[in-house]
Amino acid sequence: MDAEQPRSSREPSPTSRASDDDRPHEATSDGGRTADPGATDDGERTPTPPGAVAPLRERTTHGHAEQPERAGAVPAPRPPADNASTALTLGTPTDVVAALPYLVGEPPDPGIVVVALRGTRARAAFVADLARVPGGQTPLERSRTVVRLAAEEGSTGLVAVGLGPVEVVGPYLDGVVGAAREHRLDVHDALRVADDRYWSHLCHTPGCCPPEGHALDTGRSTVPAQAVLMGIAPAEPVRRPGEGWARLRALVPKPDDASAAVMEGVTAAVEQQARRMAAEMGEAALVRRGTAELLAAVRREKEGRGVTGEDDLAWLGVHLTRVGARDRVWARLTREEAAVQQRLWARLTGRVCPRYRPAPASLLAVAAWQLDDEPLARAALDVALAADPGYGMAVLMRRALDLGLPIQRWRAHAPTWLDRPPDSPGPSESIAPPDSSSPTDSSGSSGPSGPSGSSGASGPSGPSGPSGSSGRSGPARAPGTPDPP
């Protein structure tokens, strides 16, 4: 199975024979399509990196070796290669579980991994931590959202793996299978894994799958050996939320009272200048100027001449209240520049007045997301939402993380958005799941780049400063979350 997650890429290859513990069973999958093991994906955007993963040869089951093959590709931070023969062969459910560290890192427990397949490649892998389910979402609603996103990516099938007890994981697997049928996607397998055993939610044949499940011994899988021979390293372990706050405190400077007072005075003067300039040159011209100055700050950071002066930092904070300028910077925040921008937005988050924190903190979260650092991204979003619980960009980013939305969905979209006219909706609109609106998102149906975005298109000249008209107060954080730096 080729899988597409921000960590590794995979190519199809012939699968191996099943072990004795992974013998065929009679489970069914929906859709009835037959995969072509030699097919390639139309419109593939990236070269094949080393370390591909072949799909289960089984068409419908927990990996028993008598069904057609499916695969998927998952871009990773690995150098591209043109050799499509470097593929991990997955012939059994044990192989699928053994391959998870190479596909998505250490999956959460309880958690679920959904690998979306298209042709013989997986287009994306959605990873959900079931201990962090968004409030108000039922398993069926969450599963439908993930499957709908997979269908929107042009997927033709999927493989689901749930980790944890049946009472927690079962409803999600059932939801994935049901939603896949609604979208006419093949379900090649839906496995539940717990206590070194696995069960298939697709097998209903008496005597095939014992109630105690099948033994899961990843030590018998050839996947690790294949990976060593191909030079494929496991993805980085999943980082825990506490690590994100520790790194955030190390990245974000905490000014003393005297420095904060100086910045308040400088910011007040900059706000007055911005109001005067908006009146003289027009809001659109000020957005263009702000965009240019923000991108110039990124270039300076890259050259080792980062912005540090109070006046310059205050202007950057004010410019980011213009949604058009902010979204232009957001759209250009690529993985290649993520480390540079992470430093810039962390410094700005710590130095600007608290009411100006939402935009740079949200950009810091995007940079961390690009670098596969979800805990840091979540910690940065906590800072943004503590300053403005209705800040649209932060609400949207948190929703994307809660859904396990792959960063590739954004990476592939950003260049297209940059070609649109300046008054077109920004990236915030196009990656928002259409049926997952939040009552705390004051950005309206058009996303944070819309006319009623919580960032406030009027910027500092508005009655509420950079937060626009949201008027909300109080932290949007779970109990026990550390205070922002």
TrEMBL record:
Superkingdom of the source species: Bacteria
InterPro entries listed in its UniProt record: DUF4192
Pfam families membership: DUF4192
Low complexity: compositionally biased ranges: 432-485
Organism: Nocardiopsis aegyptia
Lineage: Bacteria, Bacillati, Actinomycetota, Actinomycetes, Streptosporangiales
Protein's name in the database: Putative membrane protein YgcG
Location of the region described as Disordered in the Swiss-Prot/TrEMBL record: 1-88, 416-485
Residue ranges, compositional bias (Basic and acidic residues): 1-10, 18-28, 56-69
